[in-house]
Design a protein that fits this description.
Strand order of the largest sheet: 10-6-5-11-12-13
Largest sheet: 6 strands, mixed
Number of helices: 10
Radius of gyration: 33 Å
Order of helices and strands: HHHEEEEEHEEHEEEHHEHEHEHE
Mean pLDDT: 87
Number of domains: 2
Number of strands: 14
């Protein structure tokens, strides 16, 4: 009897047919769990990616609207919500539920913050006790609050008469509206104007920069070692003076943040005379040059070149060939303009240039003058001219994603 029991026990211990089935079952469950977790992780990753994209797009759109200055806070929030929802819809059905974004507009800091949350239910992973994954996402845009000092060299020569000049006035005022919104700029923005034709009308500053008291307000380039620099116009570095017949009626306007003053000046422009483009480039530079601080009024004095939070910019616009110059030894107007642009870019002044229905040779000068390919625009009609000025203003606002 004992021997029989021992034999049966030994047989049971050696019987492994059921062990294989159990091990296979456990392995299947493990594989199923891993596969289920992979599926759930893919759902979570997909939802997180779409949520981040939607919040980033909404934040950028809202930040741009904030800087533009034409929408109130409620309108900016509606705009951001629309961008958020449209971006979520583009990827098809979501694997979870997404809350409506919480949007905070802070005009004091120039920042828009968007918070959104997605909840993704788990499938197989529920077995491990995880029923859902909550995904909070935060995105913000804020204005890189660099101050802007901008000098604009605007062509008011005879070839700009009529519709061209009207287009320029509209485009330049568009830029002013963007950089100086009615709601108030989020940083310090000052804009100066250097309208040019066959010469520059320096107005009340003419006697100071020429060292002459003959009543002429029409000035031209200087000779000598500092002919292409922004050296102060004193001693041997004073500028030349012309009779008033060569002057555009539009006068130089030192930098100001008064948009009414700027727009009134631009609205008063009339077109006449040749194209001394090098003078426009030089005077646009003088407007933002701290070396000229002794010339400009207190509110118009530029900050030092070394001021890290200030962007110094010149916009040079023309519709024709630079064809008027006065100091023979300096070279023709086109080459003088190139030299002036080279010197100001060496001082870290950003140079944007716009060719408006200009011939190839004029386009080449403006391309050379610009700070690079992204700083040059060619406009063949009024709409493209407005777009060029608008794009430059938007670039200067310099939106950046902070999170």
């Amino acid at each position: 009897m004992a021997a029989h029991v021992l034999k049966n026990g030994t047989s049971f211990a050696q019987d492994r047919q059921g062990t294989v089935a159990i091990m296979f079952g456990l392995m299947f469950l493990a594989f199923a769990m891993v596969a289920g977790m992979a599926i759930d992780m893919g759902r979570v990753t997909n939802t997180k990616s779409r949520l981040v994209t939607a919040t980033d797009a909404a934040a950028l759109a809202a930040g741009s609207a904030l800087l533009d200055g034409r929408l109130n806070d409620a309108e900016i929030e509606d705009l951001a919500t629309n961008y958020f929802n449209k971006n979520l819809e583009q990827g098809g059905n979501l694997f979870g539920t997404v809350s409506q974004p919480a949007i905070t507009v802070n005009r004091a800091s120039g920042e828009v913050v968007i918070d959104a949350t997605a909840t993704v239910p788990m499938s197989i992973t529920k077995i491990a006790g995880f029923t859902e994954v909550v995904l909070p996402v935060n995105s913000a845009t804020r204005f890189d609050q660099r101050d802007i000092e901008l000098g604009m060299a605007l062509d008011v020569t005879g070839s700009m008469r009529g519709s061209k000049l009207a287009a320029l006035k509209t485009a330049a005022k568009d830029l002013i509206d963007i950089l100086l919104p009615d709601t108030g700029a989020l940083n310090k923005v000052r804009i100066g104007l250097a309208p040019y034709a066959a010469s520059i009308n320096a107005g009340t500053y003419a006697s100071t920069v020429t060292g002459l008291n003959v009543g002429n307000t029409c000035v031209y380039e200087r000779a000598g070692a500092e002919k292409f620099s922004d050296a102060a116009p004193t001693g041997i570095n004073t500028l030349g003076a012309l009779s008033g017949v060569n002057c555009p009626s539009a006068k130089v306007q030192p930098m100001t943040d008064n948009k009414t003053t700027l727009k009134t000046q631009i609205d008063g422009y009339s077109a006449n005379g040749g194209t001394a483009g090098h003078l426009g480039a030089a005077w646009a530079w003088y407007l933002v040059s701290p070396v000229w601080n002794s010339i400009w009024p207190a509110d118009s004095k530029p900050v030092d070149y070394s001021t890290s939070n200030t962007l110094k910019v010149v916009i040079l616009m023309t519709d024709g060939v630079f064809n008027t110059q006065y100091v023979g030894g300096n070279g023709n107007s086109s080459n003088q303009a190139r030299s002036v642009c080279t010197e100001m870019k060496a001082k870290n002044v950003a140079v944007y240039s716009i060719a408006f229905q200009a011939p190839t040779s004029a386009q080449e000068v403006l391309q050379d003058c610009s700070s690079g390919t992204d700083f040059y625009y060619s406009a063949s009609n009024e709409d493209e001219l407005r777009q060029a000025f608008t794009k430059i203003a938007q670039k200067l606002n310099n939106l950046r994603l902070t999170n």
